[in-house]
């Protein structure tokens, strides 16, 4: 047991109870009972990681060491907590150190959580994947653990206000069968993407109902979210604007 991690989980449970969240967790048996695993999960909102670790905790109270942008660790309040939980800071300008830290954790038998999409998907469908998760798995010999979180975007996501009150939202977390670390990084990344796409569709099908035009509902299901192509264009425009501002400094 890790007292700090255990205390954080207890606090999260109380918050979820206060919010009235309803959980549907499946595929716990697909999380390794011991040894390493790269927990790869989708990115629809700012709180995905708090839910993505639930299956591992249910599988023998295992803890996940999440990779998160270094700005979170720079925060005066959040930083010390993140470090005490042994999460891994990611400097997007130089990710070599975080990659090596993650592989080291895996070689020591830990579960490491990573967003293959890198950034939040405004469409709530899967974006293209970076190859980092696959490369970690291949280098460490750890299996990939495809994990999908669905419904968290209703609480807090990019471009929309937080809804942290008593909302009664349903949160689904599903884990697909683990994927052996075999093949090239590109082949393994493709297998991971397909596995997570299938699990996402499964969870979306079982969620509903989907109110027409709601911001958290994908366009393909009649919602107000942008399509994947539209979201990609928005991301590209945002990245271009950030680059322009950096150039002016």
Automatic annotation (TrEMBL):
<feature type="region of interest" description="Disordered">
    <location>
        <begin position="221"/>
        <end position="249"/>
    </location>
</feature>
<keyword id="KW-0012">Acyltransferase</keyword>
<dbReference type="GO" id="GO:0006654">
    <property type="term" value="P:phosphatidic acid biosynthetic process"/>
</dbReference>
<feature type="compositionally biased region" description="Basic and acidic residues">
    <location>
        <begin position="239"/>
        <end position="249"/>
    </location>
</feature>
<dbReference type="GO" id="GO:0003841">
    <property type="term" value="F:1-acylglycerol-3-phosphate O-acyltransferase activity"/>
</dbReference>
<keyword id="KW-0808">Transferase</keyword>
<dbReference type="GO" id="GO:0005886">
    <property type="term" value="C:plasma membrane"/>
</dbReference>
<dbReference type="Pfam" id="PF01553">
    <property type="entry name" value="Acyltransferase"/>
</dbReference>
<feature type="domain" description="Phospholipid/glycerol acyltransferase">
    <location>
        <begin position="37"/>
        <end position="152"/>
    </location>
</feature>
<dbReference type="InterPro" id="IPR002123">
    <property type="entry name" value="Plipid/glycerol_acylTrfase"/>
</dbReference>
<protein>
    <submittedName>
        <fullName>Putative acyltransferase</fullName>
    </submittedName>
</protein>
């Amino acid at each position: 047991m890790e007292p700090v991690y255990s205390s954080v989980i207890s606090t999260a449970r109380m918050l979820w109870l206060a919010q009235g969240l309803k959980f549907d967790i499946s595929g716990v048996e697909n999380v390794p009972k011991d040894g390493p695993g790269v927990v790869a999960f989708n990115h629809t909102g700012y709180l995905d990681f708090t839910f993505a670790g639930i299956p591992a905790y249910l599988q023998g109270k295992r803890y996940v060491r999440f990779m998160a942008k270094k700005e979170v660790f720079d925060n005066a309040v959040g930083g010390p907590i993140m470090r005490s939980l042994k999460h891994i800071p990611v400097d997007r300008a130089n990710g070599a150190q975080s990659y090596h830290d993650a592989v080291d954790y895996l070689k020591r038998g830990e579960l490491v959580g990573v967003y293959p999409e890198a950034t939040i998907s405004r469409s709530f469908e899967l974006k293209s994947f970076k190859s980092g998760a696959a490369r970690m798995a291949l280098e460490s010999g750890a299996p990939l653990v495809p994990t999908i979180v669905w419904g968290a975007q209703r609480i807090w996501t990019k471009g929309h206000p937080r809804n942290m009150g008593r909302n009664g939202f349903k949160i689904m977390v599903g884990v697909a069968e683990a994927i052996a670390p075999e093949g090239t990084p590109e082949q393994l990344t493709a297998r991971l993407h397909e596995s997570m796409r299938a699990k996402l569709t499964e969870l979306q099908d079982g969620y509903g109902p989907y109110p027409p035009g709601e911001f958290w509902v994908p366009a393909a299901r009649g919602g107000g979210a942008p399509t994947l192509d539209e979201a990609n264009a928005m991301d590209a425009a945002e990245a271009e604007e950030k680059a322009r501002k950096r150039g002016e400094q």
